[in-house]
Design goal:
This protein is of the alpha+beta class. It has a single domain, classed as START domain (Alpha-D-Glucose-1,6-Bisphosphate, Chain A, domain 4). The protein has three helices and seven strands; from the N terminus they run E-H-E-E-E-E-E-E-H-H. A seven-stranded antiparallel sheet has the order 1-7-6-5-4-3-2. Strand 6 and strand 7 form a beta hairpin. The longest helix is centred in the last third of the chain and has 14 residues. The C terminus is likely disordered.
Length: 139
Amino acid sequence: MTADLGRRHIPAVPGAISATLLRPLALPSWNPLFRELIGRREPRVGERYELALTVGLRGSFAYRSLDPERIAMTWQVPGMREESVWTIQATPGGSLVSHRLERTGPVAIVMAGGIRGVADLRLERLARVADDGLARVRH
């Protein structure tokens, strides 16, 4: 198993952050590892989406929790499974967002060094999506 954790203040309201994370079909637009997700527009816990990665692997994606303050996801391809959790807390001027991910499987073991910093990269991209107009907090 390999793991990574990141935390970042994002100047967007918590509802905008959770709404972004709960748009499964839009995840590939800001997560460059995902090439495509096929499934329902509205997420449901446990419902599987077809997943295609940019590296040519295919698998599945699902939400494990849809709580606006704690969103959990899982995806897997042959040889690797990722479990991730996003926690969102209101703060003055925006949201404190934490992202934790754990990968298991033989591919995850081979890629162990490459997971460091992934959580921070995802948080940076999420912040950019929020900065592109998602309910920014007015100062």
